[in-house]
Amino acid sequence: MLRGRLRRWRGPLRVLLAFVLLDLAALATAGVWERHSPDDYAARVVGCAKERRDIVFVGGSTVSEGIVPKEIVGANWNGDPLMNVYAVGLPGGTTSEFYHALKRACPEPPKLLVYGITASDLNDSRHEPHGPASLMSFGDTFDWAVSRPDSREWVVRQYLSARVSRASALWRYRHGIRMAAAFRFEELFPGACPASAKEARELRNYADALKNGDGYAPAAASVEQRYDHVKQVNGELPPFKFLDNYKTGSHRQYLHRLIRWTTDNRVSLVLVDMPVTADLEAKHAAAFAEYRQLLAEEETMRGLTVIRAHRDLVGITDAGFADTIHLNGVGATVLSRWLKGKLDELGREGTTDMPVVRAQAGDGKP
Amino acid sequence: MPAVLIGQKSFFIFLVVVLLGYHLLRGRTAKYAFLLAASWVFYAAISPYYLWVIWLLTGIDYHVGRKIEAETDERKRKRWLVVSVVSNLGLLVAFKYTVFFWDTGVAVANLFADVPPRAWDILLPLGISFHTFQGISYTVDIYRRQIKAVDSKLDYALFVSFFPQMAAGPIVRAVEFLPQMAMPPTPTAQQIQDGTFLFARGLFKKLVIADQLDMLFVSAVFNDPSAYSAVACRWAVLAWAVQIYCDFSGYSDIAVGVAKWFGFELPLNFHLPYLASSIADFWRRWHLSLSSWLRDYLYFPLGGSRGSTFRIYFNLMLVFVLCGLWHGATWAWLAYGVYNGALMSLHRVFDQSLKRRAWAVRLRASQPWAVFAWLATFGQLLLGLILVRMTGWSNGAAMLEGVLGLGEGAKLVPATVPLLVLLGLAGHGWELVRERLPRFAWSWDPLRAVNAAACLAAVAIFSPGVSKTFIYIQF
């Protein structure tokens, strides 16, 4: 009976077997595909978790593009020089992603956690699918679904879809395989697919930087790009949709969880209100007003240390930005050096609660 | 409800649910009722406002079929047949050609007065060009006493609405499908296997070759031919030929393959069309179910190749003009029909004048002539395909200039395009080798399975995120 059934289904079974073998081959060579299409969230989390860090920066693309960890090395905190710095910058992420990333990136808690926060991190009108796909466990998803009914269906769908897509290595690594193919094809036939090969090269460089570095792996184009030049050429503000329909509340819960995590693990926490361009603040004035009020409330109610790295205080003009919100290479270096000085001041033993230090750090400034 | 378009995730889920439900159910009525309901759900997912169209035509054709069979008076039988033909063609014309006639009328009226442009449009019900032809063939075959009218409404409705082929054919005749429905067929091992291979091949043709060619090259060149070099324009026309073949034959492969999983056999719709050695040969290889329908229900009733010389050529031209218009209600499709009608007429003149000359018969049997005939036919086909793809007449002229080397564009061909074109034509090459070298005409199932798995792997990796609608669904 079984033999009869097997004979009846031998065609599809043979196809399935051959497909599984191809899939296993793709899985066995996963490193090649990951190098051509890295999961930057997972790579940064894994990179950070490799060893115990002195300072960990978390945040979105303002951190991934705007914090140069090597410029922070040597900052003093409570008399200790902080030598091991890592930046877990998750482009497109929200506070919810940063909390989940933190839990995995810091199995051994650092001495200091710096959250480079900005208005878009807390905007409930947006969610980042990369979070449920790369950072969240089943428990995290369940927790989210229970505590945040507004996005319950979304988070379950994203989580399940990511898990299902991992069933096949060919599907999971499809972008990496395409990029690797484009890279090789271009090597064999120069000019065959220049756009795809360029993307593949950039992704390889990105993957290498993520694997070996300290989390700082900015997009090649934005290191050199200057916002003032972009404005001159384009004449108008490039669109930034991450602040549209601004509302806060749901992601804020995860800010509280992040604070609780630092308290539970005896980690010092500093929030840095990251600099943005005047154009962005003007265009989304209401969003920034709501965000800054929220930040002030958290500061007052929970006694948080907030460094307001306003562009004027840091000394960054449009020339230091790559676009409306991201710093370019020069801007990132300026901010990081300035921040190192501020952390030094804040970290002098017993001074973190002194109002004068908080004022120097930008307290009360816009 | 999300559209259940073949090649999209929702279709795969739908297919699994329907296959499981169909094979788990017991009893003829339960199985067919379930399959019919699923087919209507499939229809409603794409054309939610037009379920009444397929219900109405199904009802009319079913009752007309029974009336024709029961009637003995020939005049009354003919009247009932007219009811069926007018109902099917009436709705087809109303939905498909109203806009065309309106726009043409407006264009003529604008010669004399300012008439505002049309501010409305008509959505085409899914597969109307296909199921109306199935309905007509059913009642005509009963009228000709070639088949018996079906007793069961359920059987007839399923014949018209069977979802794998509902959207874009093949156009199935009642005589091919209804006898298979006597008892719910159980798919054999061979059908399950062949269905799997066809399904994988169809997805590969559509998602890897057709959609990629369109995205990478064909659309870009046809949208702005003057920016591309002569070589690029020629490659674009060739790539378009491969795209439309892979798109349509890919759909047919999926439809035939899925039908096999239910135990049904649908007719094959293509037989290596780009190996045709004449335009007549091409229409015997391309969209076979439409070509044979037009032959049996239009060309032969018009008199076919009997009668005066004028009548024969008139019949040929009329059939191809209507064939062009069947594809789309535009002047370009009309021109495509005229182009093919003219080629068919010229071919007939050529054929008739040479077939009694011994030297010509010898020459036409030679190998060099076969190659020449193939090249000439392929060239004619490619030129005709410009009419089908151009975005406007000036655009078509620019494309023709580009192909003839009269343009001044400089953009070149990405190397991936020749690769995809070769892949798209690989099936033709393989079949040619098997035909010419019989020692290669073996088939080893494990190798076919590896081929199918490789096709599915390529679909997983290279299919674009969003698949484009099948071209023939729009007809």
Question: Could you explain how this protein is built, in words?
Answer:
The complex is a heterodimer of chains A (366) and B (475). Chain A has 366 residues and is an alpha/beta fold. Chain A has a single domain (2-360), classed as SGNH hydrolase (Rossmann fold), CATH 3.40.50. Chain A contains 21 helices and seven strands. Chain A has helices spanning 2-8, 10-28, 30-36, 40-49, 61-66, 69-72, 95-105, 130-134, 138-147, 152-165, 169-172, 174-188, 194-212, 220-224, 227-234, 252-264, 278-283, 285-302, 311-314, 329-347, 355-360, and strands at residues 55-59, 75-77, 80-82, 85-89, 112-117, 268-273, 305-308. In chain A, the strands form two sheets. Chain A has a five-stranded parallel beta sheet with strand order 4-1-5-6-7. In chain A, strand 2 (75-77) and strand 3 form a beta hairpin. In chain A, helix 12 (174-188) crosses helix 13 (194-212). Chain A starts with a helix and ends in a 6-residue tail after the last helix. Residues 351-366 of chain A have low confidence and may be disordered. Helix content of chain B is 70%, strand content 0%. Chain B folds into two domains: 9-184, no CATH class; 191-474, no CATH class. Chain B has 475 residues and is mostly helical. Chain B starts with 8 loop residues before the first helix and ends in a 13-residue tail after the last helix. Chain B contains 19 helices and no strands. The radius of gyration of chain B is 23 Å and the shape is globular. In chain B, helix 3 (51-70) packs antiparallel against helix 4 (74-109). The longest helix of chain B has 36 residues, at 74-109. The chains are: A alpha/beta (366), B mainly alpha (475). The interface between A and B is medium-sized, with 26 and 25 residues.
